[in-house]
Structures are given as structure tokens and as C-alpha cells.
Amino acid sequence: MAFQGSRQVARVAVNMALSEDREHEKGLKVQYAREGFKTAAVDYGGDFVASVNKITERAVVAAKREGVIKEVHAEEGAVAGATREALSQVMMKAIGLNVGGKIGIARYNDHISVAVFFGVGLLHLDDVAIGLGHRAVSS
């Protein structure tokens, strides 16, 4: 297998966040597992400001549940930090509005990426936003 670095892990996280439904998500998980990636995805929604902590918690819980990370402080912190970084990239577009979408998480060895994709709602004038964070942990 060729080296999988931060760019490849970021691509996988974005693809997980963009998966259309649970079946598509499961298919991607299987495909990426064959390539050596550990992945997870989880839906979320609500008021952006009120949801920031919940989104971060959901990312960490999903990563642990799917075996992307172990239940150790450094790995949990890496996912939380990458999630917060991804959220900060879309904050100006989403602040004060409702959001709904998906978090995609990917890991290959010591590279972890978290992508957040969501629709930003204001009446029927929806917009979309995507943010991406990366952290490195010892594997």
C-alpha cells in the first residue's frame, strides 16, 4: 500500500461527510477499510452556536464507537481539536443560523481528519459550508 498522509486522510473524511445516506456511508466504510483507513460519520443539526459543543461531543463519541480512536485522552483530544478547527472555518457563515449535516472522521496511522458538512438554513434560502481539521497522534 502506498503512503497515506494528511491529504489522503482529509479526502476520506470529506467523502464520509458528503455521504448521501446510511447505505452509501456503510459502503464507503467498507471500501476505505480495505485501504487501511478507519472511518466514522454522524449526523447533527440545530442552532449553530448552541450546537458547537454537541457537535464536538458527537464526533468524539462516533470516533470511539467506530474504533477510529481509543478511549485515551490524546486521541479524544485530537478528534475534539480537529472538530473545533473544522467548525471555526465555517463559523462566520453559520453563526446565528440553524445547521444540519454530517461529520466525517478518518484516520490512517497517526493522521486524523474531521470534516463537517452542513446546510445553513435561513427560511428557504439554504447555503452549504464545509470545514476541515487535522491532527496527528502517535499510533
TrEMBL record:
An annotated Gene Ontology molecular function: RNA binding
Keywords in alphabetical order: Activator, RNA-binding, Transcription, Transcription regulation
Coiled-coil regions listed in the entry: none
Domain of life: Bacteria
SUPFAM superfamilies recorded: Hut operon positive regulatory protein HutP
Family: Belongs to the HutP family.
Functional summary from the UniProt entry: Antiterminator that binds to cis-acting regulatory sequences on the mRNA in the presence of histidine, thereby suppressing transcription termination and activating the hut operon for histidine utilization.
Record note on quaternary structure: Homohexamer.
Name of the protein: Hut operon positive regulatory protein
Lineage, highest ranks first: Bacteria, Bacillati, Bacillota, Clostridia, Eubacteriales
